[in-house]
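Morning. Coffee machine broken again, so started the prediction first thing and wrote up yesterday's gels while waiting. Chain of 323 residues, entered below exactly as on the submission form.
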Amino acid sequence: MSALVEIEDLTVRFSGERTVHALNGVSLSVEKGEVVALLGESGSGKSVTLKSLMQLLPGKRTKIGGKIAFDGRDVLKLKGRELANFRGPEVAMIFQDPSLALDPVYAIGTQIAETVMRHEGLSRPDANARALDMLKRVRIPSPERRLSNYPHEMSGGMRQRAMIALALACGPRLLLADEPTTALDATVQMQVLLLLRELQQEMGMSVIFVTHDIGVAVEIADRVAVMYAGTIVETGTIAEIIKDPRHPYTKGLLAANLHGAVKGARLDAIPGAPPTLEEPPTSCPFAPRCPVAMAACHAARPPLISKGPGRAVACILEAESVL
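Came back before lunch.
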């Protein structure tokens, strides 16, 4: 396999009433056909990473540094028609709230048909046929009838499926999924996760899936990148992260997870709160909350230390000189 996406030292700073350094040197690669989960609590930079890849961040008061390459092309330099042709046919995105993608004044079938007509130049009959095929592929019941439905006429789970159909209509090579199952009940959530995994394998696309739930990551991902305070603190396969977490934050996330917890047992919450990120971190951002922090952790920011292919940890305890 070869990398489809290469993110190198990505930084994002928002300025306004206060400055927020949302991303602080994120580096990540995604192979062709691979599913990578970005795992972390709210505010860790997961969604900002996805929006940077799609150039969806507001232009004003946003400063972006570093590099994002998609199949060798510099994404941050795409403009105008080139950017429009990148979104949809190359990279598509689905959201937690389908209203961010679905227009309330157009029928679902019309929205899908218009998308493929614009990007692929299909005739109206062919575009309508594609729309029907996509609704069938995402397992929407009575797809012929649902083509004329408006978003408000569908249940939450069905709207989510319609949004997936719209995103995948042009056969993108990369799908960005920003917590698309969080607002769904457990049964529907599992159905959507299984559907996404099936479509990913069928279409051979890569996926970057944002979640705060390790249980969701287990169901969908091949590999996990754990994020904290705008940085990646650990990467590894699902098995490596679950069975052998190395970073103290990853261990804390697993200990605080509800999945498999004994009813009535006390969960081990991570003490303290994440940093405000009004200044870029100059030391380990997790050190103030870390149960094993040393003086060196407060003195300098640890690098992402390689522990093998696809495995890395940003913790001074992983350095050979400390072990």
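The chain has a mean pLDDT of 92. Going to sketch it on the whiteboard this afternoon.
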